[in-house]
Every structure is written in C-alpha cells, then in structure tokens.
Design brief:
The protein has 876 residues and is α/β, with parallel strands linked by helices. It is built from 31 helices and 26 strands. Helix content is 46%, strand content 15%. Helix 4 packs across helix 6, helix 17 packs across helix 18 and helix 22 runs antiparallel to helix 23. It binds iron/sulfur cluster.
C-alpha cells in the first residue's frame, strides 16, 4: 500500500507547494513521506512543503508584509471576529435572544459571501427582513474593520490573490491541492491566476485503486458501531493494514464510539478510565469541547466565585473536585459538604459565603484558600479589560491551588497548555472591549472553551476513526463508512438564514438544496471508493421509533451479511469481567455480639431495620453505614415533617382537648395556627443552619396554615377526646437493648380509653401482623406506654389525603381504624416479636435476609451487602 500511495508524492520536489484541506491531512502526508524516505534507507531528506490551506494564506500574507508589499493589518482571530459581530448585532434595532448563535450565523454568511464571490449589494437581499438586517450588519462590520485597519479570515484570500497578481515572484511554481471535495469560487480564482502566470496546478485524486464496495445492514446504531469495531480489530491482526472508519456527525456519537471501540480493543481500560484517550490503539477524531474536560470544567466553575450570586452547586463541585487543595484533606472537604447541605439554598452572596466560610471549624487548606480568595474578590474592581480579567482569573485559580497537588496525566498537561491559550484568547479581546464586568469576562471565557475542540495527542495509529471530511485525501487498505441511511445521507438542506435563498441555490452554496447535498454526498462517496481497496458502507434499520432505509446513494450495492464478515465471537464486557473476577464469598450470618463497651444508639429505626433485614440493622447501627444527605433546594421533606410536628405539639399544648378546639371561632383558630407556625419556624432557625429568605418562609407558612386547618377540621369530627401527652419521651428495655422513643401524642377518649397517634406527612402503608410487621413504631409505643392502650394510629397529614390508619381494640375509637381480632393476643405477639428482634440484634444476628424484594428497593445498602450477586430475595 505504501509504495502505491506514496508514488505520486515521491515525484514532487521542493519547488512544489502541497496545500491540504485540513491540518490532519497535512500531518498524515508528512508522516507518509517520512516513512517512505526511511524505507529507502535515508536518514536525512529534503522535506516537502505540505501545508494546510489556511496556513498557506497566512504565510503568503506574512511574506507580503515582510517584503514591504503590504501594509500590516491585524489579522483577527475567530473570537475577535465573533465579538465584533456580537457587538454590532446587539446594537441593532431587532431584539435578539440568542446573540451568540446569531453572531455565528452572520459570520458564516459573511464567509460564504466571500468564498462564493457574491456581492453584498445583490438585489435579492431586500427580499427578506433577515437578509436586509444582515446586509446592514455586514456593512458596519466592513466599515469597522476598515477604520481599525483590521483584517478577517474571510477576506484574507482576496488580499493574497491581489498580492500574487501584482507580485508574481511570490507565486509557487508548482502547486498541488489535496483533500478538497470541492474548490470554492474564491479558491478557483487563485488557481486560475496561478495557471495564467505559468504555474502548474493540480488537484490530486487517487486513481490507481477502485474499491470493492459492499453494503451491510445493522438492526440499530449500537450494533452497527460494535460490528464495525470488531471488523477493524480483525483486520488489524495484519500489520500491513491501515483501516479507516468514517462516521458522519462523529461529534454527536463520539462517547459511544470511544466506549465501544475501547471495549472491543482494550476492555481492561474501561475499568480505569483516567487518561484513556492517550493509551488507545486507535485514533478517534472530533475531540470534546474544552469545557467538557474535568480539569477545565473545574477551573471555570471556580471562576464563578466572581459572580454577585454564587451558586451552591459551584461550592459543592469545588469541594468534590480533586483539583483544589491537598488530596490528604479529602475528608475535611467531605465534612464541609455536609455542613453546606443543610442550608438548602441555591445561591450565596459573597459576604454571606465569606461569613459561612469563617464560621467553619474544619481545619483545611481548602477553607483557608477560599476565605482568602473571597475576601480578595469582594474588594476587587468590578470592571476591567479582558486581559486584566485573564490575569485576575489566573491569580484566583492559583490562590485556590488549582490544578491541585496530584500528579497530572499526559492529557491534563496538554489541557493546561490549552487553558493558557484560552486566557490568551480572552486577553485578545482588549481590542474589542475596553472593559468588561466579571460576569461578561467569564461568559466570554466559557464561550471560548465551548468553541475549542481538544483532542489529546496520540501516536500515529493503524486505525483511524474519522468524520466525513477528515478522511478525504487519506489512503486505507480497508474502509467502513457507517450511518448511510435515507434520513441522514444526503443530509437535509439547511441554508444560511441571512443570505437570500435564491442566491444560495443559484450559486450551489453548501446545504442550500437537496440536489446540491446529493451531489456533494456522491462526490464524497466517490472519494472514499478511490481511497481504499475494500469498502463497506452501512446503515441501521432503526433509530428510536423511526424505521430507516438505506440511502438511495447506496441501495444498489451488493449486500453483505453479518456472518460473511467472519468475525470472532463477540464477548461482552460483563462476561469478560465475570470470567476474570476472583470472587471471594464472605458468609455473614452473624457478627460479634454487642458487648459492653460498644455504644449502640437507636430507637424505632433500629428495630424497623432489624425487622426488614438483619444485615441492614447491623450495617446502619453498628457499622455506621449512612448515606450522605442529599442536597435539596429550600426546605427538605424531613424538615417539613418536623415543622408540622412542632406546630401540632404547640396547638394541642394550648388547646388540650377537642372541646376547646370546637369552641374556637374561625379567627381564633387561625391565630393559634399562625402562632404555632411562627414558633416552629423560630425554633427551626435557632437550631439549624439556614439562609432561606423571607419569601420562602412566607410560602412555607401558607402551606402549613392550609394543612393544619384541614387536619384540625378532621379532628373536630372525631369522638370527644383529651390530649394527655405530646412528644412524650419513653425509655424502653427490650431484652437488654435500651431504646429511647418519643410518642407524638396520647389521647384519652371520653369513654376513658387511650389511643396513640403518630403523625406522618408521607403516604402511609403499614402491616401490623407480627409475622409481617413493617412499622414497629406503633407496637413499640403500645408496649412502652404508661397507659393501657386501646387503639394505635398513624395520622396521615397531607393535603391530598387526610386519614387515620391503624388498629383498635373495638369499633369507633378513631375513624377509619380496623378492629383487631384479638387485641390482647396481638399485644402479646408484638411484645414477643419486638423482644426477639432486640435480642437478635444484640446477639449479632446479621444475615443478609431481606423480608422481600421491596425491602431492598427501599434500602440503599446494596453496594455493601452485594445482594445482587445473591439469590436470597423471594418475590413474596
Ligand atoms: S439491600 Fe436488601 S439485603 Fe441489602 S441490606 Fe438492604 S435490605 Fe438487606
């Protein structure tokens, strides 16, 4: 393959300039040529002038300046151009929401005008409002550039053309254009000039090879990718092969491609994903945008500390990310996360944050750095030039210890260099904006990161996974082009919004019409067929709910069955892991008994866990396994429950009986409820860290008022009762296990009987039979109560449904309660079961034995008990 593909290059001399459509292609042919020379036994050779088109233009321009033939002008970079468009558009009379997107589209329209050599004065610009608006923006853009003596990339070819026209001595004598599917009129003009002045110009195309092409159908995209990866792996067993996989819209499915190819080629790497890209035996193009890499993402998050309102999510990220502070302080940072969560607010002002940071008792570098940084930020200037922001941002990250003390991998080193380039890009905006707010500077930096694709440098590989254009001009022994279904190939027209449609169609501009797209895709296929001896094209039959057919450009090809590829057996990663794993079974039916020095704290929850699954109780109450509190905005559900409990305790403390309740006027009842709420909220604020604002508390008060009014209405409809205890603490000893309980409420009815009530704000579901006991709470209260209890009930206090749920000795003690068949017998069996559970816990009974499947679904310990690997859960 090498000699055939390189023979044309070997005939060229240092008189030739070979311009390529992109940088990747220039590198590819430079490497091919070097390999060819080494193959001839040479250790030194004359390098060929292989250069990307855009770089060649810049080189010509620079040479014009160096020779005194051109007046130097500042050549704008992409971000500078976009910022000028944004500034002009933002001052236009039309209100625009997506300023950045509109600026990008306008910039592209401007580029198309120059490439296709169209005039801005074309009469069709008056046909639509968008086109007219663009015409005005473009005129302002041009005037601004002329005034400032700046030059943009769209006009650079015109400058080079004029330069070459006037100074033919600067012209290359021989030129080869490589990897261009089509030459735009602007490029054709340059070629015509070269030819007219006596230079040779040649557009390179492979001619010695026409492929055998087959079409393969896959049921879905995942199978299509997987089959392509297995096919490539099979071929790479032969070191002479160079394999290409072409993927339209590669950026959109890059993660799937990376995962599948890694799983097929080096599955073990999936288990240690850090630095994965740099150790793969294949090269995959279309890197991620810079802000998608964790180290850059973390830096951008940290710089949000400059905002007037700092999102809590940013602080939590900074506490979790490994790029700030010493790794040894991880536990201190976890503790700080725990301190931050109870605030339940999604933003902090810098002074609020500073006061929170200063109130923390945790000793760690992270905290000290943050205090220093936030103090610094609160005094910094609010407006400064982009280059000053670049400097400030850099210093701020240094203060925070970014990128941390851990050893960086090769990808992260490359990313640090990219970060410096990003800051330089921000600084380059000085010429556009004399000053920016910190928020605007951050937005610009973020936009720059989002627009910059980064692919870690990897060694040259025999397997290239490429987008549709990157593959043009490269040579392969085998090529697979996937995704050629009738929905995507040719792609649907998508003309530019700011250029007249008739103009775009007349000139055959990109994506202007379906005919143009069809022709373009045909040309691409023809390039692929000439670049490899064997080509497979493929499509999937289904994408989500849509059935797909082959593109009309490939439906006459010979079909190839999956089994004709003769691939090795497909082994899934899970099977490989299972086969390689050495599983060590630890049978844990009993732990050491609880002995004197061991301090076990628990209440109802302990016995509830023991009843659900002995291991759960063991893990939670003896090993201390506990899930971190999840961060919720506003007031957490458990806190809402506590507020309701406090309110009801206050109300019944004031009223004492149903008779008192019934005597109240509507206004008196409302007053008591509001006093109860005010007291509950004040108590909450005095015991919990909170920075919730006044408005949120107002909403919570309204919610509680509505809820309490509805619940007390229900209480009015019961039989006469007196509340004799609220939130009563009870100590209980169950077979040696000391428990501390708190009974929400005990009522005495007019008949003299006692009932226990426990408030719930969640949906109530409970089974009371001893053999299926799911809620031991009420039975525990029952056996520990100082009064003989005749009914127990969970009171569901919810706006969607208010109800009592429980058991009674006889009918009518509380609404909706069921009557127990034999109350005394039931009390005895509860006593026996609870004592048994307590004794089992003390004895160290810790078998992984959940009561049923649902128990595990509601439990969060499966990573500890590994129940999934066991077959002990019955469906009952
Ligand atoms: S997940 Fe199931 S088996 Fe594991 S501790 Fe929880 S309840 Fe027990």
């Amino acid at each position: 393959m090498a000699s055939a593909s390189i023979s044309w290059l070997a005939k060229l001399s240092d008189q030739h300039v070979i311009v390529t459509a992109n940088r990747r292609l220039a590198l590819y042919w430079q490497e091919q040529y070097a390999a060819y020379q080494r193959g001839l036994g040479h250790t030194v050779w004359q390098t060929l002038d292989i250069i990307p088109y855009q770089s060649w233009l810049v080189r010509c321009y620079q040479s014009g300046i160096d020779n005194g033939l051109l007046t130097p002008q500042l050549l704008l970079n992409e971000q500078q151009e976009l910022s000028i468009w944004e500034t002009i558009i933002s001052h236009s009379a039309r209100p625009l929401l997506q300023l950045a997107a509109v600026a990008k589209e306008a910039k592209r329209a401007w580029q198309l005008l120059w490439e296709w050599q169209c005039s801005l004065d074309h009469p069709s610009f008056t046909h639509s409002e968008d086109c007219t608006a663009f015409q005005q923006w473009a005129q302002q853009f041009q005037q601004h550039l002329t005034l400032q003596q700046w030059l943009d990339c769209s006009q650079l070819p015109e400058i080079v053309y004029n330069l070459l026209q006037q100074h033919s001595e600067l012209m290359p004598r021989h030129m080869v254009w490589l990897g261009f599917i089509e030459l735009v009129p602007q490029q054709q003009k340059i070629i015509e000039l070269l030819l007219k002045q006596g230079s040779t110009c040649q557009q390179f195309a492979f001619s010695e090879q026409v492929a055998t092409v087959h079409c393969l159908t896959a049921p879905n995209q995942a199978t299509e990718i997987r089959t392509m990866a297995r096919w490539a792996k099979n071929l790479l067993n032969n070191p002479a092969h160079r394999v290409g996989c072409i993927v339209p819209d590669i950026a959109a499915i890059r993660p799937e491609l990376l995962r599948t190819f890694t799983e097929i080629f080096v599955p073990e790497l999936l288990l240690e994903p850090n630095n994965i890209d740099t150790r793969l035996p294949f090269n995959i193009s279309a890197g991620l945008a810079l802000h998608e890499y964790p180290i850059i993402y973390a830096a951008l998050q940290a710089l949000q500390l400059n905002q007037a309102q700092i999102p809590t999510s940013v602080l939590l990220h900074l506490l979790r990310a490994p790029f700030f502070g010493p790794a040894a302080e991880l536990f201190a940072q976890v503790r700080l996360q725990g301190q931050l969560r109870p605030y339940h607010q999604h933003k902090f002002s810098p002074p609020q944050l500073l006061s929170w940071l200063q109130s923390q008792k945790v000793e760690c570098q992270w905290l000290r750095n943050m205090i220093q940084l936030i103090s610094h930020i609160t005094h910094q200037t609010t407006q400064q030039a982009p280059s000053q922001w670049a400097q400030s941002f850099s210093e701020q990250l240094e203060l925070l210890g970014w990128p941390g003390e851990r050893t960086l991998n090769s990808e992260e080193y490359q990313l640090l260099q990219k970060w410096q380039a990003l800051l330089a890009g921000l600084a380059s905006l000085d010429i556009i904006y004399p000053s920016l707010s910190s928020k605007m500077a951050w937005t610009k930096l973020q936009a720059l990161a989002a627009a910059t694709l980064f692919q870690p440098q990897t060694p040259e590989s025999k397997l290239q996974i490429l987008g549709t254009l990157e593959a043009v001009g490269q040579r392969f022994t085998h090529l697979w082009v996937m995704g050629l279904d009738d929905n995507h190939w040719p792609s649907k027209p998508s003309p530019n919004n700011f250029l007249p449609l008739s103009l775009q169609r007349d000139k055959l501009m990109p994506q202007a019409s379906s005919e143009r797209e069809t022709d373009y895709c045909k040309r691409l296929l023809s390039h692929y067929y000439q670049s490899s001896a064997q080509v497979i094209v493929s499509y999937s039959q289904q994408a989500a709910d849509t059935m797909l057919r082959p593109s009309r450009l490939i439906n006459e090809l010979t079909c190839l069955g999956l089994n004709e590829l003769m691939l090795a057996d497909d082994i899934q990663l899970a099977e490989l892991v299972a086969a390689a794993a050495k599983v060590e079974e630890v049978e844990l039916s009993s732990a050491p008994p609880v002995s004197a020095p061991e301090l076990v704290r628990g209440g109802v929850g302990l016995l509830k866990s023991q009843a659900a699954c002995a291991f759960k109780a063991f893990a939670e109450y003896r090993l201390g396994a506990k899930l971190a509190e999840t961060w919720e905005l506003g007031i957490a559900a458990t806190e809402r429950g506590n507020l309701l409990h406090s309110c009801l305790e206050y109300i019944w403390g004031r009223l004492g009986s149903q008779q008192q309740l019934l005597k109240l006027t509507a206004q008196e009842l409302l007053d008591i409820i509001q006093q109860a709420i005010a007291q509950a909220i004040s108590q909450f604020k005095s015991t919990r860290a909170t920075m919730l604002n006044h408005k949120l508390w107002q909403i919570e008060s309204q919610r509680l008022t509505k809820l309490l009014l509805a619940w007390l209405e229900k209480e009015k409809q019961r039989k006469d009762f007196t509340v004799i205890a609220t939130e009563q603490a009870v100590e209980l000893n169950l077979g040696g296990l000391a428990l501390t309980l708190k009974i929400d409420r005990i009522d005495q009815l007019a008949s003299g009987e006692y009932v226990i009530i426990d408030y719930k704000t969640s949906k109530v579901q409970a089974q009371w039979q001893a053999e299926h006991l799911t809620e031991p709470q009420l039975p525990l209260y029952c056996i520990s109560s100082p009064y003989p209890i005749a009914a127990v009930s969970l009171a569901q206090v919810r706006n969607d449904e208010m109800k009592f749920h429980g058991l009674a000795q006889s009918d009518g003690l509380l609404p909706q309660l069921k009557t127990a068949d034999d109350w005394q017998n039931m009390l005895a069996s509860w006593q026996q079961l609870l004592e048994q559970l307590g004794a089992q816990f003390l004895a160290g009974h810790a078998a992984i034995a959940p009561r049923d499947k649902q128990t595990c679904e509601l439990c969060q310990l499966e990573l500890v008990c590994r129940i999934r690997g066991k077959a002990v859960v019955s469906d009952e």
